[in-house]
Amino acid sequence: MERKIVGRVTILDHTCAMARYSIWILMVCVALLCVGQGLSGSLIGVRAQAEDFGPDVTGFIMSGYSAGLLLSTFMTPHLVKSVGHVRTFAGLASIVSTAVLLIPLWINAPFWFLMRVVSGFCTAGLYIVCESWLNTASTNRNRGQMLSLYMIVTYGSLGAGQLLLNVTDTSGFSRFIIVSALLSLSLVPLILLPMEAPIIKGARLVAIDEIWRASPLAVIGAMGCGLAQSAFFAMGPVYGLTAGLPLVYVSIMMALPPIGVIFSQYPIGLISDRFDRRTIILLLSALSAAVAAATLFTSGFAPILFIGMLTAFGTISLPIYSLVIAHANDHLQKEQVLGASAKLVLLYGLGSMIGPISVGLAMRQMGGEGFLIYMVAVYGALAVFAFWRRLLQPEQFRCKGNEVLKVSPVTTPAGAGTLGD
Which DSSP letter does residue 395 get? Predict the structure, then answer.
């Protein structure tokens, strides 16, 4: 009897150790992927500005990533079912690293848009594989902690990727090669994982009109976050260059907001668990619009003030998407949550396709200030809608304490995999 117990304990300890090992390997994989993605998005915007494409054409090019993301949420789960997680990840990593290398070979806007579509499709697929694997490797006891760590790694790595814009590149190819290398290297940790992750199943499909009946603010909020946040990351470097900042300051400007979210998201989520989330969404949206408006008047001052204002804007505005998802979950049944998350990803993706194009047109018509005016308009409208919903239903809704930290607007939540079921 003692031998059996000892054997079981040994097996259990070994299993736990392997699970912890898998999680840390996954974090390395995600870090490499996010550093590459962070550099890639800003790099293409900077190069488009250098090639004098214009903000409207640049916005069109950058929207290709979101188009690819939408396609990936539909197709990647079927691909995983057919060939498995490792082969899917390997194939997508190879394709996206090749697509990045092809971009500087032909300076052509439609071709760059196509490569952005390919990049969005593959990168979103890589996130789907990583996040579903992470969900399986963690347990109910540590899943919240692991997903919080995942968010820290994601935002920190995205910010770090921006700083690689400062790498000297006299040939015009060096930084693209770095992106390709990082995306290719992200494959290596994953193939070393000792366990296989299944596709998430069992979730009930949810229609968008069901979500609207449960929470109109969740539908509008997901679209609004897509409109604003995609425009911020896609066209932020272009705006920085238009404002006269040197490239080193532009890289810092784009690096600090996601890093700031590491410190803001947890307390914001904690507060939203104790008060009506609609009120918190209203306040953050109004504050985001106010900070964006105030930033309009800082472009003539020291770059540190200008960058500080944009950092504050990103630190405040980026967590709103997580609150929107948590607010939707508060009003849905448990079996609806994954299906609803998948539909909200679609709404966010639709908004993120329109965002870069819209802000590009605004910058074409109004100059660089159009970037901030666009942000004021989007977040101001979201604040007005949240206020209207509070007037219609003034009573506070009792929150269920959902894990706000588990949702990231810069990746594709694993719940999107339910689209393929």
Answer: S
Q: Which two tokens stand for residue 266?
A: 């947890």
Tokens 């607007």 belong to residue? 409
Q: Is-contact 103 44, C-beta < 8 A?
A: yes
Pick the closest to residue 38 from 162, 185, 128 (CA basis).
Answer: 162
420 lies in a domain? no
CA-based radius of gyration for the chain:
21
Does the residue 151 lie in any domain?
A: yes
| Cα–Cα distance, 274 to 401 (Å, whole number) | 8
Task: Identify whether the C-beta of residue 222 lies closer than 8 Å to the C-beta of residue 212.
Answer: no
Q: What is the pLDDT along the chain (421 residues), one digit of tens a residue?
A: 444 444 444 444 445 555 566 777 878 888 888 898 888 888 888 888 888 888 889 889 988 888 888 888 778 777 877 787 778 888 888 899 999 999 988 889 899 999 999 998 988 888 877 776 776 666 656 655 666 677 788 888 888 888 888 888 777 788 999 999 998 888 887 777 665 555 555 555 667 777 787 778 888 998 999 899 989 988 889 898 888 888 899 899 988 998 888 888 778 877 777 777 888 889 999 999 999 999 988 766 778 888 999 999 999 998 888 888 777 777 666 656 556 666 777 888 888 889 899 999 999 888 888 999 999 999 999 999 999 888 877 655 555 544 444 445 455 444 444 444 4
CATH code of 349's domain: 1.20.1250.20
Residue 292 sits in which domain range?
Answer: 2-415
* Predicted TM-score (pTM) above 0.85: no
Number of domains in the chain: 1
Q: What is the distance between the alpha carbons of residues 146 and 261, in angstroms, rounded to a whole number?
A: 17
Question: Is 274 within the bounds of a domain?
Answer: yes
